[in-house]
Design brief:
Layout: H1 4-8, H2 11-18, E1 20-25, H3 33-36, E2 50-54, H4 58-63, E3 67-69, H5 77-85
Antiparallel strand pairs: 1-2, 1-3
Length: 92
Amino acid sequence: MTCAAEEYYDVRAILAEETLVTCATLSGVQGVGRMLDPACDSEDLPKFTRLELPLWLVPALARRGMLQLGLPRWYNERMQRKMQARRWRACF
């Protein structure tokens, strides 16, 4: 059992809150437009809206088929093309 102080300083928890992941919605999302994207003018997000969401939120939404993840920007253009072409079997 961990105490609250240990959880407060947990590096994984801090990174999960602070790391943003680029993604796009695969369907329209209603009622959360301004919450997920402060630059949004309406409460609804249209299909294929590009967002930067916290790492902790992305896995749950991606498992439900609501998001398409963007490619990491720190990879060079050649690696991004390779990952895009063979996304399901790229060897890292």
